[in-house]
Amino acid sequence: MSAIFNALPGIEVPVGSIKHSLTAMWDDTASKGGPAPASDDAKATQVNFVMHLGFNTTVDDAVEQFQTSVRFSRRYPCRVVVLCPMADDSATVEVRAKVYGECHLGKSKGDTRCCEFVMLTYSFGARPYIEDQVSICLSSDLPLYYWAHRFVSSARINQFHYLLSRAKRVMLDSALVPADALTFPWPRPETVRDLAYARLLPVRQSLGQFLSAYEPARLVDGLQSVTLRHHGSVSAEARVMLAWFTPRLEACGAKAGQVVVSSEQRDDGMSFELDFNYDNAHHFHWSGDLEHGIARLEADFGTGRTVLPTAVSLLSPEAALGEAMFF
Fold first, then answer.
1. pLDDT band at 112 (very low <50, low <70, confident <90, very high)
2. What are the C-alpha distances in Å from 204 to residues 195, 207, 234, 260?
């Protein structure tokens, strides 16, 4: 993780003077004619955001996720703390810090927004103290959001009790974390949000809006099974989609366990192909190609055949973060 810490932008500073170093960083930037906050209004921090990079994070991935957090902070001004644990199991207590900031224009020419980042890398021996250090770096009286990225063990990440218990939302990506992450007994499981579910928002909206044009009873009349064929690259999204369908079909009148819901993985063809299988003349098929951004809806629920070409996409990483955090 030292390689990750070194790859992230910023100025290395003493751990004990992070807040002073942030002020000095802006003063130095302004003295050189660079973009810096002209007043505290330019740093109108709305939330605290902790991004925790797990041991499965590569250097390239860490840089990519850092840029995701930068883009997110442009829309939602926040104090971002990035945690980079060292890979060794040394008992030595070692913590290093970096600070980073940038400014950008808001909705108008005079609306300048600046975001601040603190990067912390720490040894295994410093683990008992790192949450105290994080709390010092955060802005007081603002909600806390915690993103655990590519962690290798749910039990080990569960040791970060302060972050998990204080966070208003805990974000994880079921495509990138251990299989038990969504069922693990977290301190506050009601706060946990899956980024795979958040990414699917445009797909859920498209399917929901199309099917809502029909009477609920027609959707489940004669329905025997739902089959989703998907590319291996979207396995997590496919699992989320099927889990999303089941309670909604029951809300339309299907009895619990009446409809068989299943998925099939394949390595070619469309990203998604969804079929509702009936024992009568009803028909529903949806296919989505994420690579080209095109989709097709076909249905006949007794009122005539409908074919609708449409677009398909997943939310961008920064938009998915916002969806998981605030909605």
1. confident
2. 14, 5, 15, 20
Structure tokens at 326: 């605030």
Q: Which amino acid type is present at position 105?
A: L
- Residue range 154-176: mean pLDDT, rounded: 97
∠ CA 279-281-286, rounded to 5°: 90
CA distance linking residue 95 with residue 99, whole number of Å: 14
Mean pLDDT of the 71-85 span:
92
This prediction has a pTM of: 0.93
Residue 277: which H helix or E strand, with range?
strand 272-278
Q: Give the C-alpha distances (Å, rounded to integers) separating 298 from 207, 250, 260, 288.
A: 11, 22, 21, 12
Distance separating alpha carbons of residues 209 and 202, to the nearest angstrom:
10
- 170: helix, strand or coil: strand
| DSSP state for residue 255 in the 8-state scheme | P
**Cα 210 vs. chain centroid, distance in angstroms?**
26
